[in-house]
Specification:
The chain is α/β, with parallel strands linked by helices. About 30% of the residues lie in helices and about 25% in strands. The protein is built from ten helices and eleven strands. The strands form three sheets. It has a six-stranded mixed β-sheet, sandwiched between helices. Helix 5 links the parallel strand 6 and strand 7. The longest helix has 18 residues. It is globular.
Length: about 280
């Protein structure tokens, strides 16, 4: 019979080494809203077909496309004003949306000042109204009748109204319409500044392609369906973009440059300036 070995009543557990914690990487941007496979049929007509779209925190996404391509319908679907025929729309729970519609019809005989108009959205604090108007550069019109505002002034008031909601997602439908060229540039600079200061996401529809490319992180080009999407530089080289807007538009972008602290490779991926320099051909 084999001899029994004594058993240690208090065995010592083997020594284990704690795993070295991984270095924390940059936090990915939080998703604010997303549409997947969206179909919309209105009045017996297919307006959108299998459209995907996503907006992240701190990102400016601009939807472009020809007239009648479904741009406004898409963003109205994202904010919940239009129900998709098929597909899903997800919005982060508790998401606050500031929405600036494309058109505003006001009875010309209605006695409505800018201050009163802003309170229709629920805001009551006079200091908050003045602060919102000051942020968009329209504080001097607070007592003016809405009907007497210029196109640029009305757009700024509409943006102030959207900002009063302290939005996580700012949704702007043609924010620079009825505004002259100088005003368009100022409005797009304002949108970028609002994104930077508030950290909100921005979903925008615009026809002004040059200014879109200056103020946009992601472009979604649609014509009832998604034609192409990506970084502005990549989209302007896409055959679908060229087919929609023509080679003359693309040539115009060839001399246009971003004022960014980075560049993009041919696929649209971000390169730091050091990486760009390393890729540059060297003489000799």
């Amino acid at each position: 019979m084999p001899e029994l070995q004594p058993t240690d009543p208090h065995p010592v557990p083997p020594v284990t080494r704690a795993a070295t914690p991984a270095e924390p990487g940059p936090r990915p941007p939080a998703r604010l809203a997303e549409a997947r496979g969206i179909d919309v049929r209105l009045d017996g007509r297919d307006v959108l077909s299998a459209v995907d779209l996503a907006v992240n925190e701190g990102e400016i996404v601009t939807v472009i496309g020809p007239n009648g391509s479904g741009k406004t319908t898409l963003i109205r679907t994202i904010v919940g004003l239009v129900q998709p025929t098929r597909g899903t729309v997800w919005r982060r729970p508790g998401l606050r949306i500031g929405y600036m519609p494309q058109k505003l019809a006001i009875d010309p005989t209605l006695p409505l000042t800018v201050a009163r108009f802003l309170t229709l959205g629920g805001a009551r604090d006079g200091d908050a109204l003045r602060a919102a108007l000051a942020e968009v550069g329209a504080e001097r019109v607070i007592d003016s009748p809405v009907q007497r505002l210029s196109g640029g002034e009305l757009q700024r008031v509409m943006m102030a109204r959207a900002l009063l909601r302290r939005p996580d997602l700012l949704v702007l439908d043609e924010p620079a319409q009825s505004v002259d060229v100088t005003g368009q540039k100022e409005l797009h600079d304002l949108i970028t500044r609002i994104r930077d200061q508030h950290g909100c996401g921005v979903l925008m529809v615009s026809h002004d392609l040059h200014l879109v490319m200056a103020a946009t992180d992601t472009v979604l080009c649609i014509n009832h369906h998604v034609c192409c999407t990506g970084h502005p530089e990549a989209v302007t080289k896409d055959p679908a973009f060229l087919a929609l807007f023509g080679p003359d538009v693309a040539e115009g972008f060839a001399v246009y440059t971003h004022h960014h602290d980075h560049a993009h490779d041919p696929a649209g991926e971000v390169l730091t300036l050091d990486e760009k320099a390393e890729e540059a051909p060297r003489d000799g």
